[in-house]
Amino acid sequence: MKKYGIIILLILVVAAFVIVPLINNSSEEPEDTPMAKFETPGNIQVEYGTEVPVKFSIPEGMVKVELLYNDSIFETWNNPKPQMRTVAMQTNYYGVGTRPLVLRSTFKDGTSLENGINVRVVSNILPEIRFVKIVKEYPHNQENYTQGFEFDGNQLYEGTGDPGQLGKTLVGPISLETGKFIEPKIGLDPTHFGEGITILGDLVYQVTWQNGKCFVYDKKTMVLKDEFKYVGQGWGLCNDGKVIMMSDGSERITFRDPKSFQAIRAIEVYDKEGPRTNLNELEYIDGKIYANVYMTGTVLVIEPTTGRVLEEIDANELVVRGKNGGDVLNGIAYNKLTKKLYMTGKYWTKTFEVSIDR
Q: In the sheet where 263-268 sits, what is the strand order?
């Protein structure tokens, strides 16, 4: 039987080498297929708020040509004459980030072809550099691999991760004075790595790193109330009182409906040079998003509507004073009632009340 199996396998392999190229070749369009094409074959980089001229050619035989920016139709030409066109594109429609720009050509038989490039919109703002100033020190539980840090009124909550997969993910209220958890708290099993948390109304939201799950707890009892699923990784969470914002370790922040956790929109975080990746723990303060940059002592202040980096906070003094054999800076909590800001890190021995040097 093994002999016949090998013969059949050889026949299939030979057939694959013969048939697959034929299939692939039949689906390829010749390079000289007449279609609307951009005159600039490469990608475009431009600053936010500026106008960029986009030049393209339209050949004969087109029933319709559409120009799409970020998957939305920007302009349409029906039965266009052969011509060279230039369209002035405004770059402030969707904030900063890399967006697709596509020419879609529709033919008489109803088929269509697309020619695309990317428009990379960088920020037009040079972020102001700020420094933290330590106001007061508090103890922090050195066993806490801090992932989420947030106030609800005067009560501080913390969510932790579990690098050793030992079932040490915890979330619940903590004492600022002692750094210890206050009952009730809740933990996850070793298969779930807890990440960022945020509190909205009577609910505590907690995302997981690679499980694609968001757990929702009653903030008073820490009893599980709901569970949502999402695609991709979960890193940090915050909210503006209406929607939840989630980071995933890239430059992307996704805005989500708290009732369903479905994505509403997203921003990409850029400075004048390009994307700022590794966005981790988040906090929403006075209309702006504060984000730890993972593996650094840097906190970015981000404009939620556009994704532009407005300020860059150097918090490395905290790393020197608080790390003490621990891990990286990762914890921003703002008390709206007292207007005080607190920062800590993974496995740190201290939590700091800080002010921002302006």
A: 237-239, 244-247, 252-256, 263-268
CA–CA separation, 141 and 135 (whole Å): 20
Tell me the whole-structure pTM to 2 decimals. Answer: 0.87
Amino acid at 99: R
Q: What is the mean pLDDT of the chain?
A: 90
Phi/psi region, residue 194 (left: phi>0; alpha: psi -120 to 50; beta: rest), is beta
Backbone angles phi, psi at 96, to 5 degrees: -80, 165
The number of CA neighbours under 13 Å toward the Cβ of 330 is 30
Question: What digits encode the pLDDT tens for the residues 24-78?
Answer: 333 334 456 789 999 977 889 999 999 989 999 999 999 999 999 999 999 999 9
Encoded tokens for 12:
């299939």
Write the burial class of residue 186 (CB in 10 Å: 0-12 exposed, 13-18 middle, 19+ buried): middle
Task: Give the contacts of 61 (CB within 8 A, at least 6 positions apart).
Answer: 34, 107, 108
Sequential DSSP letters for 263-331:
EEEEEE-B-SSSB---EEEEEEETTEEEEEETTSSEEEEE-TTT-BEEEEEE-HHHHHHH-TT---EEE
